[in-house]
Each structure stands twice: as structure tokens, then as C-alpha cells.
Amino acid sequence: MKINLGYVALPMTLDVTSSHTMTYTRYQMLGPELGNAQLHKIILSNFGALEKILYYNYKNKIHFYRLTSNLIPLATHPEVHYDFYEQYKERYQRLGKLIRDYQIRVDFHPDQYCVINSIHNDVVEASVRLLNHHVKMMELMGIEMKLVLHMGGGTYGKRAGMNRFMKVFRSLDPKVQSKIVLENDDKLYHVEDVLEVCRMLEIPMVLDYHHHLCNPSETSITMLLPKIYETWKKENLPPKMHFSSPASRRDFRNHHDYIEPGHFINFIELLKQYETDVDLMIEAKKKDEALFRLVRQLRFNDYILEGTTLFL
């Protein structure tokens, strides 16, 4: 079996960022004409930086990567009237071509403000705009990729939160529905909760193993893994998972700078039993540096890797 290891958003090694942003306050202060000109400059800078990052990933044989959700600032703000898509069509297409040519699986993971099960209509509306924006970018890039979401809040209890998520999900554009994958979280919705919703909506589940340790289900993970794999059966992409190590025993929920190799090896040996290819996102504060350090540690322990792809 094969495991592509990846990292999140901005490599530590490169002095570039594809997440330059602009606040609405700044946009208002400049006014539409100057504000749009500044937006244009920032967007072109972000596109250029992302192209460099993709090339960096290619040169380092990284085949799994999370794109920043901050590529296009103010894209979903209702008071900003600007063409975020058609005028940049060639740049999106160029990104898509690079991703295909470099053979990198990419995805998006919108931030914590994307909460489609919120009890507040304005939050839900903003979240739906954000999802539509991500899918529009995917379409322009012409790339098969996924949007990772959490279930969201638990106001009035977990069952109510799950029902709100499903209700809003079913109201989304089918194009958006087809892109969403659902991840267990570290405090409220554990693996069995998420599996239940994924089965009802017929969408894939992303296992975050660290979140599972923080917020475990009653059923063992060995019993749950086949059910998680089953949610991906209709997809053209391998199952996706997240892995991180705790910052410390006291600060267990937060991510460490790096990955604890013994902990990681135990996890991949668990996955090995199921003989299913997986794409595994390394969520560590040192990002690509943590990934490369883990690769060196795996080689030291006699694992076979080609670049950042692990063979078991």
C-alpha cells in the first residue's frame, strides 16, 4: 500500500506567502477604485507565490498539499463588487495545469468561521458564500479536489447540531455537495457521530487521528476504520486522513512543531492491516520541515519511501 504524506499551506523553507490579505476596513478607506487596484496587486502576488510553492513541492517529491483558503482576499464580502474569477481565468487554469503536471493532490480546508450548522442565519449565509467561492476556484482550476469541513457548533445539543448540518447541506448546490468531506473534531463530534452523518448524506469522512485521541468514540478505531474507508468507495481519490502530535501532555489538543515518530509509526502500522492507499496530511507547526524530518526518521527505521511517499 502507498501513503502520500503532505503538509499545509505555507512552507517554512520558502520566503513567500500565497495568503497576503486585505481587510474590508482598508478597502473602505481606499475606496472602490484604489481598493480594487490593491486587490488586483495582492491577488497576482498570491498566484505567483502559489506557483512557486507548487514547484517547490514538485522538486521535493511532495504529492499531497493543502491549498490556502486565503488565496483571494475579500472574495465573499457582500460589499466588495469585483471580478474575482473571469479576469483571472488564465491564472486559475495555469494553477490547475501545474497541479496536474506535478501530480499533486490538493484540497481546501476553510477556516473555523465556516459553520453551516450555526443557529445564526448570517453565519450560515456567509459560510455558504465561502463554500461556493471555493468550488468556483476548483472549477476554474479544473481539478478534482475536496473541501474539508467540521460539523460545527453544538448549540441545543449534538443531535440538533447534526440535524442542522444535514438540513443546510441538502440545500446546497449539488456541485458544492459533491466536494464536501467531513472531519471529526477534538471536542464535540467524534468519529461515530461524523460517520453517521456521512452515511446519511453519502459523503466521505476524513479521520483526524489526533482529534480522535482528544475526543474518542466508544467503539475502537480498529472497528471504525473499515467504515471510514467505505465512505470513500464511490470516489476517485484515496481516503484522506490527518495526523498530528500533541504540543505537550498539558497542552494535548494543540499541535506540536513536529511529529513524534513512535506515535506515527504505531498509526501507520495500524493502517497497514487494511491494505488501502491513503493520503495523510501532516498537521504540524513546522509544516514542510516537520514532513521532511518525519521522512528522515522513517528511513532510519527502515521504511521504504520515494520522496515523501511511503510504501508499506
TrEMBL record:
Gene3D superfamilies: Divalent-metal-dependent TIM barrel enzymes. GO terms for molecular function: endonuclease activity; hydrolase activity. SUPFAM superfamilies: Xylose isomerase-like. InterPro entries: UvdE, Xyl_isomerase-like_sf. Keywords: DNA damage, DNA excision, DNA repair, Endonuclease, Hydrolase, Nuclease. One of its GO terms (biological process) is response to UV. NCBIfam families: uvde. This is UV DNA damage repair endonuclease UvsE. It comes from Candidatus Fimihabitans intestinipullorum.
